[in-house]
Write a structure and sequence with these properties.
This protein is of the alpha+beta class. It is about 40% helix and about 15% strand. The chain has two domains: about 90 residues, Phosphorylase Kinase, domain 1; about 190 residues, Transferase(Phosphotransferase) domain 1 (Transferase(Phosphotransferase), domain 1, Orthogonal Bundle), CATH 1.10.510.10.
Length: about 350
């Protein structure tokens, strides 16, 4: 983690110019910064109100959480911090995510909404991000998982962001390392049963389930213009009755045959995540395993068009090898299945080609 002078970050953001403003929330603003050498970063600056009060609590918490986590491709990682000792002004410098948020991608009325394969890819990456948080020692609970906190990098890989409300569990228990004054989160994504800070891993699981429903339906978590405003209350009866097409984004037309089973599987997982019985909600490790099964086990291998994986398999067989490894050079995300290691991104890229051909 780098330590920057406050002046260096002021220069990088053109003194926090409006032309560099890329995000704004209740606790502050995010600016695009260009460091010496040309590296592009994002800079979080507390709101003026918090600066007047010299309250860096949430920013300090985010710095503490991010600096304790290993760098990973699934989370918006910390680059460094800046702290002016005299004025107590503090800034957080993080990775720059050039392609905006999932919320914008879903709800900006774009003529080119995400493909079904891309949505499946986003769901799996988000699940892996939360799994990493819950699996860290001690566990980290995000507490504000929502589509606007999922950002895309220059290669359109989604990453989980904004750890200002995150907390740590004490050791391996479900109790907190400290006691927050009250539950936190965003209405619509927040578990209705979250009235006391307990079983917090299941709070994140609920929020994840809401995001999955939002990804496939392209409906907002709360939409007061609809007869049933809650996405959970609207979607659960449809999923229970296997009315998948009615849940899915109507802009996309008929579901491609190669994606129906996968989407049904993922919606069933989402339904379990938002169950009112928190004890019946799966863990993030269970969710990741089930999602991998949804994506990999349902692949119809004859449809694979890539010559490279076939070539690898033939070579492995000819050499009498007991293992076959198929990897994507740009996206090293693999799923182990028996003696094979399959690239999820390769699988979904091939499926996306099939999906496009079926909708032409």
């Amino acid at each position: 983690m780098e330590i920057f002078s406050y002046k260096e970050i002021e220069t990088a953001t053109k003194e926090f110019s409006l032309s560099r403003l890329i995000g704004k929330g209740s606790h502050g603003c995010v600016y695009k910064g260009v460091l010496k050498g040309g590296k592009i970063v994002a800079v979080k600056k507390p709101s003026k109100g918090l600066q007047i009060l010299q309250d860096n609590t949430k920013l300090d918490n985010e710095i503490d959480i991010l600096s304790s986590l290993p760098k990973t491709q699934y989370i918006v990682n910390i680059v460094g911090v800046s702290h002016d000792v005299l004025t107590r002004k503090k800034l957080l410098v993080i990775e720059f995510m050039s392609n905006g948020s999932l919320h914008h991608s879903l709800h900006n009325n774009s003529a080119n909404p995400p493909t079904w394969s891309k949505r499946a890819f986003i769901v799996l990456r988000l699940a892996r991000a939360i799994q990493i948080l819950h699996g860290s020692k001690p566990s980290v609970i995000h507490r504000d998982i929502k589509s606007s906190n999922i950002l895309f990098d220059s290669n359109w890989n989604p990453k989980l962001a904004d750890f200002g409300l995150s907390v740590r569990l004490a050791n391996d228990s479900e109790s907190l390392s400290y006691s927050p004054s009250q539950p936190a989160g965003t209405i619509g994504y927040l578990d209705p049963s979250y009235t006391t800070p307990c079983k917090l891993t299941k709070i994140d699981v609920f929020s994840f389930g809401v995001v999955v429903l939002e990804i496939f339906s392209c409906r907002r978590a709360i939409d007061v213009s609809m007869e049933t405003s809650s996405i959970v209350e609207w979607a659960l009866p449809l999923i229970k009755n296997q009315r998948v097409a009615e849940v899915c984004d109507s802009r996309m037309g008929l579901l491609p045959s190669n994606m129906v089973g996968r989407i049904q599987c993922m919606l069933n997982i989402a339904a379990r995540c938002v169950s009112s019985d928190e004890n019946s909600r799966p863990s993030m490790t269970e969710i990741v395993t089930e999602l991998e099964d949804c994506i990999v086990e349902r692949v119809h291998f004859p449809i694979w068009q890539s010559l490279f994986p076939i070539y690898c398999m033939i070579r492995a067989r000819n050499r009498g090898s007991k293992t076959t490894t198929i990897k994507c050079r740009r996206y090293p995300e693999d799923v182990s299945r028996g003696s094979k290691v399959l690239s999820v991104r390769d699988i979904l890229d091939d499926e996306e080609e099939l999906e496009s051909s079926q909708t032409r």
